[in-house]
Write a structure and sequence with these properties.
Elements: E1 2-6, H1 21-33, E2 38-41, H2 60-70, E3 75-78, E4 81-82, H3 88-101, E5 106-111, H4 116-122, H5 129-146, E6 148-152, E7 157-162, E8 174-176, H6 181-190, E9 193-199, H7 204-219, E10 228-235, H8 251-263, E11 268-273, H9 278-293
Parallel strand pairs: 1-2, 1-11, 2-3, 3-5, 4-5, 5-8, 8-9, 9-10, 10-11
Antiparallel strand pairs: 6-7
């Protein structure tokens, strides 16, 4: 089973947390050297709770381009890109560029978005998000998989839009991440991978999502083995209560939790150490190494 890690995005300025672009790139290299198979970024323009000031966050695709040039092995992914923030033809060109720059290491995660404050702040429409996404998805997949797009819809139009320079590599896999029935149907028909997040140990919520995904695959007459199943696993803050959501950020606990997800047949776990300090990243790396070495303590430690 592959294991990835979500990078900090500059929204936490506490001591020991990578916040500048250079610090995040350095953290990515350390995580890659530590053995993580993939490195992931969030795609937000801001995060804002009611009555509070917005939190800072770096632009994800600019950061991905830097990671493409400064890492050498790990898959690079967006978890997930909001298709409503950029014209779909432009987004396809951006993905193509990063994919080529990285030597074919991009996994393109796509979603319809959910955080209304950033739409309002930057003037993007928040209505009809699935319909807008459905059209954008058609353009993006055509450009990346077929090399060009001609499309006329209610929200988006392309006229023989080419993907140039011509690709030198197979197209990046496309991952969708959502639980709604329409998006699950789209996943079953067209996606290469699916992500569900954020979980601790395998539990009822995961089992319910997986059951609905299997139903969508059956309806699409698709073999489940042809779709990669990825899971986002949250490591709860160090000061959280023992029964708080997520998994404790301790090496044995992480190793045991990864073993539990592997037992469920998951293809990849993406670890998000909420409060992403360098220290927590190193503990996650040690947990990854113990999982790979088969030295995890009893699964009960993960609870």
């Amino acid at each position: 089973m592959r294991v990835g890690y979500v990078l900090p995005m500059g929204d936490d300025r506490d001591e020991g947390v990578p916040a500048t672009g250079r610090e995040i790139v350095a953290a990515a290299r350390e995580l890659e050297d530590g053995g993580f198979d993939s490195l992931w970024v969030f795609d937000h323009l801001l995060m804002q709770s009611p009555g509070e000031e917005p939190q800072a966050t770096w632009e994800s695709w600019t950061l991905l381009a830097a990671l493409a040039a400064t890492t050498g092995r790990a898959t690079l992914g967006t978890i997930v890109t909001c298709a409503g923030f950029r014209p779909p033809g432009l987004l396809a060109k951006m993905a193509h560029t990063v994919h080529e720059m990285s030597g074919g290491r991009l996994l393109l995660g796509l979603g319809a978005g959910w955080h209304e404050p950033e739409y309002a702040a930057f003037g993007y429409p928040f209505d009809h998000r699935f319909s807008r996404f459905d059209e954008a998805f058609a353009i993006i997949t055509a450009m990346l998989r077929e090399g060009r797009s001609t499309f006329s819809g209610r929200y988006h139009t392309t006229v023989d839009a080419p993907l140039l320079p011509a690709p030198t590599l197979p197209p990046p896999p496309i991952m969708l991440g959502t639980h709604g029935p329409k998006m699950l149907a789209l996943t079953a028909r067209y996606a290469d991978a699916y992500n569900t997040a954020w979980h601790g140990l395998p539990g009822d919520r995961f089992f319910g999502v997986r059951e609905r995904l299997m139903e969508a695959l059956t309806a699409a007459d698709r073999d489940p083995a042809t779709l990669r199943l990825t899971v986002g696993m949250m490591l709860r803050p160090d000061d959280a209560e023992a029964d708080a959501p997520g998994v404790a950020c301790e090496p044995d606990t992480i190793a045991a939790a990864l073993s539990a997800w592997e037992a469920e047949g998951v293809d990849e776990v993406v670890v998000w150490a909420y409060k992403c300090s360098n220290d927590r990243a190193r503990r996650a790396t040690e947990g990854l190494n113990r999982y790979r070495a088969g030295t995890a303590s009893d699964l009960q430690h993960a609870r």
